[in-house]
Amino acid sequence: MAHEALKAIAKQSLLLKSFPEHHIDTLLSHAIWRKYDRGETIFLQEEKAQAIHVVLSGWVKLFRMSPTGAEAVVSVFTRGESFGEAVALRNVPYPVSAEAVSACEIMHIPSPVLLSLMREDPEIGVSILAATFTHLHSLVAQLEQLKAQTGAQRVAEFLLTLCEAEMGDCVVELPYDKMLIAGRLGMKPESLSRAFSRLKPFGVKIDRTHALLSDIQVLRDYAESDPSEK
C-alpha cells in the first residue's frame, strides 16, 4: 500500500483522529512503518514496551502463554485499531505477545515521542484515554459474553460484527483461521464446529472461509436471547 494511503488510514485511527493536525504530522514523521508476514512476531510477552502500535492493514492477535504452554487469545485487532498504549506510556513490559495472523502493515509510534507531545499539549492525553477506554470496554464485553452467552451465541455475535448490512442477508469473510476464532471466543476448535452446526437453523452456512447469513435480524435475535429460556 502506498505510503500516503497508509498515512491517511493512520490519521483516521481511533488513536490519532482527534489529535490536532500539527501533532499528527509530528507523530507520523517519527513513526516506524513495517510490514509483517503471517505468523511473524511483533513483540513478546515481558519484552519492554517502547512504542504504540496502529494496524494499517491485516490482522494482529494479542495472546498470553500459560506456564503449561497453553495459548490464551486476549484480543484481535485490525485496520485503524491501536494497541499497547498503556504499557508503552508507563515504560513497563508487555503483559502479552503480539503476532501477525495475516500479512499486515503496522505503524509504530515511539513512546518517547508521544510522551514529549503530551507534556507540550495535555489535551493529547484525552485521546490516549479514549483509546484505552475502548480496549477496556472490549474486554468487559468479552467477559460478559463468556458469562452470559452460550458458545453458539458468541459465534453468532462475532459473525454479526463482520456484517456491513443491518438487515436482510449477508456474506462475510472469516478474517482469520477457525482455530484463532475459537480462541478469540473462549472456545475449543471442536466447540466452534458444533456452534456453527447449531446456527444452521438460524440461517448460517459456513463455506470454507466465508459465512452466509440468510437473515441478519433472525441471527441477532438469537444472539441477544436469554440462554435460560431455551
TrEMBL record:
Keywords: DNA-binding, Transcription, Transcription regulation. Residues 15-124 form the Cyclic nucleotide-binding domain. The keyword Glycoprotein does not apply. SMART domains: cNMP. CDD domains: CAP_ED. This is cAMP-binding domain of CRP or a regulatory subunit of cAMP-dependent protein kinases. GO terms for cellular component: cytosol.
